[in-house]
Design goal:
globular, 171 residues, 34% helix, six-stranded parallel beta sheet, Rossmann fold, homotetramer, alpha/beta
């Protein structure tokens, strides 16, 4: 629950325009660690509460998607469980983001992007509502309009969905 | 060990009535994270000390059960090790809770419910002794009679069992 | 490195008598959590630095052993890697501790015991040098002569070995 | 981003000489814990952001390598993903470090070494730029010229790479 007094009118205007939320995966859906096994297989650690949040977004007619440079199948595996469209192994995230926005006939100011590291910089700089997780790389500090209170993989995705739901369920 | 002076008479009365403790699983027996593998398999992180606590509850003739919306088999796997009755994949937890209470010929005020997220709201609101874990979703803050000092998956279940044991072993 | 001024003469005397250090496993070598997989298999999280510590103990002619009630094979698996004698699945730890001490022709005051939960209580109460980990169950607080600064599975075993080494390498 | 005012001229001179950065693995690329499975297999927890950092180092013509006493294959598995040369199962790290430096026709003052525990002591004492992670063993505190702000496995490798990049991208 967000204290309405701490949510500026500017933030409310930003959120009201959004139709698409593009999430980076590692460091956003996860705590940015990776578990490495002897055979090179990987695992990641996610937050059980994210699913409830993503369903809220969809009820508000806002589409969540995942865009990741990581090639490992854990990204797809998590996205399938969460029933969210996912594109992984994307080398140039900004180029692909631009295409996605065009394909969906949206404008950049109708898009929120959630990131945690320097390879999210271009995407964050381009969208209408740039969001970083609480424990994002320090160099990203100045390029976000919202920084989550919770860290990646420990509530950040859910917090963003809750924020959208609180503001939009009242319009 | 709980400081007896901090345990109100009201709490003691509540606890003396309880015959059934219904636990949510994720976020209560776990830290609300899930480990995701490349093949989509999952794992969760639990607290070794919970087993000792659940055995104490049973010695006090109080039945612990687990009720979860999660379908993944990790819930059942942990419940089997802990030797606790478990129902997972339950879409409507309140409806099933109501049935369970009727089947066992109990009243709602003889039941404690332990939860951590919004899908526990209805169950918490209905039972005699609603309990939330220390790191529960902020929107649940006002609907509990007891909030554990320890977080989910890091002692919360054990703390609740210890609380019951301390009060009831003296009656 | 321990500040010599903070190590009492009493502690030094206690440590000089010790020939055997008996470690509980879960909560001492681990952070007291267990990872549960869909097929019921388990994993635990240990500290890489413990191996160096145990080798130091052996160079001081002090034998480390592991005594655990847990039946799961992870206990033995970790003990094998650390090359430490291990007995797991022990229902009555105090009875077995007594036998071990007799078999090795030692006295209780020549033994240190390291524990973290209530099923370690009897063993801690019996030995000459009872030790608990920093994050031990609160009911154990009063029954130890030394409480580690580091938590179980995050340096506690190593800290104990370092303490012995610092004191005994100077005698 | 490092506050330039907090980076001494001495540190800048040290870094300008470096051609090779030798990293210990456990406690540097990981949080110094190991996950142990029932069959004795192991896993470790690494930081997703390290890859971006290592690529930066290489662009500056500085070679990163991993040198570890650990025999388990997880070390090699992680090194392969990060595309970094790795030597594991090395009993005498100092002897091997000396050979590596000779093979590459470098001098000790052109080498940085990153460690976290006592078996890194000799290497740290020998190189031109000794670095320890924030949560290194306390006995190493005095033998480093730089201590990372972030812990091992939670940003330490990346922080070191970022530091090199910030200083060297301006020469």
């Amino acid at each position: 629950m967000f204290d309405r007094k701490q949510i500026s009118d500017e933030l409310i205007s930003l959120i009201r325009q959004i139709r698409l939320v593009v999430f980076d995966f590692d460091g956003v859906f996860t705590d940015n660690t990776v578990y490495v096994f002897e055979n090179g297989k990987e695992a990641v650690r996610c937050w059980r509460g994210d699913g409830l949040g993503l369903r809220k977004l969809e009820h508000l007619a806002i589409t969540p998607i995942i865009l990741s440079t990581e090639k490992n199948h854990v990204v797809k595996a998590r996205a399938e469980k969460l029933r969210v469209h996912c594109e992984s192994g994307i080398e140039d995230k900004y180029a692909r983001l631009k295409e996605i926005i065009e394909e969906r006939e949206l404008r950049f100011d109708q898009v929120a992007y959630v990131g945690n590291d320097m390879n999210d910089f271009e995407c964050l700089a381009a969208v209408g509502f740039p969001i970083i997780v609480n424990d994002a790389h320090p160099e990203l500090s100045l390029c976000a309009r919202y920084r989550t209170k919770t860290p990646g993989g420990r509530g950040a995705v859910r917090e963003i969905c809750d924020l959208f739901a609180q503001i939009l369920s009242k319009r």
